[in-house]
Structure formats: structure tokens, C-alpha cells
From TrEMBL:
It catalyses: ATP + protein L-histidine = ADP + protein N-phospho-L-histidine. It comes from Pseudonocardia bannensis. It is an enzyme of class 2 (transferase). It comes from the Bacteria. GO terms for cellular component: plasma membrane. This is Signal transduction histidine-protein kinase/phosphatase MprB.
């Protein structure tokens, strides 16, 4: 932007200077030529008054003295053919002057001026003044150099002023961009300078208003999540008491574990809402994928037995450190396995496989022998489901993977169902560009 402003001002100033200085330079050359011709004419006219009143000897001396001290060449042609002063040939213009006509003309080496005069005997004579080309342009070169220096000086001054203005604009633009980047990283306290020049100040004010509105919306979201947690806590407590009163310890333990899972999910939602606005990746401690996957698969294995599903589990020996926090990884696994139980008939086998990745992290693969995804399905779009569910399961898994520097891929399994592959980056991995926090 700064360079463009300088180019624009430089081009505009140059055009103005050219339009002003070029005609002025031509005018100076014309004035210099007219001045030289006028001076030569004055000297010649001063001699012409002596021709008719002075004898030849005195006239010859006067013409010689004037010619010697003048920058112009003065020559007097008398009627008898005598030539006084500077040596010169009888040109056609001199012949015209001998017939009584005064005139001037341009030549290759200067300007020739003739005046018709009368000598003491009454005969016709011609007084010739020749102005060399150097005299016609005397002082023009120096004047042109001064004009060029003046033009360059004006151009430099205009560029200096434009550069200062451009610096102010560019600085305000850079500050505005820096504030927007800070807001993008979650630093919601960042504010732009509303006193920036012109339209930039308007944009800065609008950006500040947007930041304030985002802060208010996040505060409202945190309050809503807190209200939700408070409302859910009471029925969860009642459900836990009901589970503890069951006669079968295994059923009590299983339902109690489910209640604990719901409690953890609610707690995680609150923590995530409180972290909202923090730069992605800064509040993650990572987790051991082997331990977390093993625990969640053991939890879902009980339900698999009840629904007569064959579960094939292949978990690499741990530890397998990955970037997602334990709660996020648990939510990802529960979402994938929950989809298997929700969208495939009872008795449908499934498999869970966890392997280490080259360079760190792990690869989680969940495959089933169900009907798979219909053609053209948009299962990864948040809130979109072809089976009447909320459509959030696969999106939760996708976001967990992308926030861990990995990705989620869908494809057909070896048994004809759905195969979901989740790449989990190592601890400290940066989130993929465009991933939502």
C-alpha cells in the first residue's frame, strides 16, 4: 500500500511538473533569443545614426570599435562597395537591404539582421548585424538546469510528504490486521485504535464492536452451560442413587459408570466453554491413547455382549501419547462406538484398532459390518444425519482429530460397512488450519 501511494503521488507530480516546466523551458529559450536580437538591433541602430553624419575615416573607426566590443558581428556595406567592420559576404539579405529594405532571417549558425542606411554622399548602404547561435541561447542551459533542479526538488518533497502519509495509513492498517489476528487467536481483550485515519477508523470501530459482541456471546454461552450443568446434576444424582440400589452389583457398576461418563461429559463441556477464546492448543495436556481406548472399549464391551455383537480389539502396547486431552479423546471414542451401536442392527460385529504413527501419535480405526453410509452422504457436516440422530457424533470425532493435528477419514470397511480412521497427532501438535476450537 505504501509503495502504491508513492507511485501514484510520484506519477501525478511528474505529470504536473512536465506540464509546467516544459513550456516554461521553451519560453526561456524564446526570451533569450529575443533578448539577443533586441540587443543587436539597438547596437546597429546606434551606428546607423553615424553613417549619414560622419566622414568615412571616423565612421570606419566607430564601426571597428563597436564590433570589437560587441558579442555580435557588425558590418557596414557602403554604396561604393566598401566594407567596414567585421568581415562578411554580401548575402541575399544584404542585397535586399541595398534596395532599401530592412529584414532579418535565421541561418544555420545564427540570425542575420540588415538595416538600409544612407551614407554622407546620399548613396545607399547596408548595416548588417549577425547574432551567433551561442548568443541566441546564452543562459538557457543554466536556466534549464535550475528548472530541472527545481522539478526534482519538488518531486522529492512531494514523495517525502506522501511517504509520511503512507506510513500513517500503513501503520494503521498493520495495527488493524494485528488486532484482527489477536482476536482470531482468542485474545478477546484486543482492541483497535478508532482514531485511525478516515475509513480505517470506521473499520477499527466496527472491529471493536464485533469483539465486544463476541465477548458478550461467550459470556452468555458460559452462563447457559453452567445452568445446564446445574440442571443435569440433580437427575444424575438421583440416577446414581437408583443405580446403587440395584441388587446386581454388575448392573449397579455399569450404570454407575454410565452416570460417571455423563458427569464427565458435562464437566468437559463446562471446561471447554471456560477455555473458549484461548488460543487452540495452549490448554491441552495430552493423554495416553492406549489407556483411554482400552478403558472405553471395555466399557462398551458390556453393551456389545448384551446386543450379541462380536468385538475385535487390537490395541498396541502403550503408552501412546497423543495431543488430545483425556476428556476429548474419550468423547471421540464414545462418539464413534456410539454410532456403531446406534446405526447398525444388533448382532453386527465391529472392530477397534489402535496403532502408533510414524513420527508420533496414533491411528484409531473403528470398522463395522453394518449398512455403511448411503451414497452422497454428508455425515461429516455438523448437525447432518441420515439416520434421525443429532448428527454430532462424527463431527465431534473430526474436531478432536483436527485439534490434535490429525484428520478423520471415512470409507468402506472390509466387511462392507463403515470404516472410520482417526489420525491423532503427538503431544504439542498444532491444530490443522481451519479447525474449530
Amino acid at each position: 500500500m505504501r509503495r502504491r501511494v508513492l507511485l501514484l503521488v510520484g506519477a501525478t507530480t511528474s505529470l504536473v511538473l512536465i506540464a509546467f516546466l516544459v513550456p516554461l523551458a521553451l519560453l526561456l529559450r524564446t526570451v533569450a533569443a529575443d533578448r539577443a536580437v533586441q540587443n543587436a538591433t539597438v547596437e546597429a541602430q546606434a551606428l546607423s545614426s553615424l553613417v549619414a553624419t560622419t566622414d568615412r575615416a571616423a565612421l570606419a573607426l566607430s564601426v571597428a570599435q563597436v564590433d570589437a566590443t560587441s558579442p555580435y558581428h557588425l558590418t557596414l556595406f557602403l554604396a561604393d562597395g566598401t566594407r567596414l567592420g567585421a568581415p562578411a559576404e554580401r548575402s541575399p539579405l544584404v542585397e535586399l537591404g541595398a534596395r532599401g529594405t530592412s529584414a532579418s532571417t535565421e541561418t544555420a549558425s545564427g540570425r542575420e539582421i540588415v538595416f538600409a542606411v544612407r551614407d554622407p554622399s546620399g548613396g545607399g548602404g547596408v548595416l548588417r548585424a549577425f547574432v551567433p547561435a551561442a548568443e541566441l541561447t546564452g543562459g538557457v542551459t543554466r536556466a534549464w538546469l535550475l528548472l530541472a533542479a527545481l522539478g526534482i526538488g519538488l518531486l522529492l518533497v512531494s514523495l517525502a510528504v506522501a511517504d509520511r502519509m503512507a506510513r500513517s495509513l500503513v501503520r494503521s492498517t498493520i495495527d488493524l490486521a494485528a488486532v484482527s489476528h489477536r482476536l482470531g487467536r482468542g485474545e478477546l481483550e484486543a482492541r483497535a485504535d478508532p482514531t485511525a485515519p478516515d475509513e480505517l477508523g470506521v473499520v477499527a470501530g466496527a472491529l471493536n464492536g464485533l469483539a465486544t459482541r463476541i465477548t458478550e456471546l461467550l459470556r452468555e454461552e458460559r452462563e447457559n452451560v453452567a445452568d445446564l450443568a446445574h440442571r443435569v446434576r440433580t437427575p444424575l444424582t438421583a440416577l446414581r442413587l437408583e443405580a446403587e440400589s440395584l441388587a446386581d452389583p454388575r448392573d449397579a457398576a455399569r450404570i454407575g459408570a454410565g452416570v460417571d461418563g455423563v458427569q464427565r461429559a458435562v464437566t468437559t463441556a463446562i471446561e471447554q466453554a471456560r477455555r473458549r477464546g484461548v488460543e487452540p492448543g495452549t490448554a491441552r495436556d495430552g493423554s495416553d491413547a492406549a489407556a483411554v481406548v482400552g478403558e472405553r472399549v471395555a466399557f462398551w464391551s458390556v453393551l456389545a455382549e448384551d446386543t450379541e455383537r462380536e468385538a475385535t480389539v487390537d490395541i498396541a502396547a502403550g503408552p501412546l501419547p497423543v495431543a488430545p486431552a483425556r476428556a476429548d479423546l474419550e468423547a471421540c471414542i464414545d462418539a464413534l462406538l456410539g454410532n456403531v451401536f446406534a446405526h447398525t442392527p444388533d448382532g453386527t460385529p465391529f472392530s477397534v484398532r489402535l496403532t502408533p504413527r510414524v513420527g508420533g501419535g496414533a491411528t484409531l480405526t473403528v470398522a463395522d459390518a453394518g449398512p455403511g453410509l448411503p451414497a452422497g452422504s454428508a455425515a461429516l457436516r455438523r448437525g447432518v444425519s441420515g439416520a434421525g440422530s443429532t448428527g454430532l457424533g462424527l463431527d465431534i470425532a473430526r474436531r478432536s482429530a483436527e485439534q490434535a493435528g490429525g484428520e478423520l477419514r471415512l470409507g468402506p470397511s472390509e466387511r462392507g460397512g463403515l470404516c472410520v480412521v482417526v489420525e491423532l497427532g503427538p503431544p504439542g501438535a498444532q491444530p490443522r488450519p481451519g479447525s474449530a476450537p
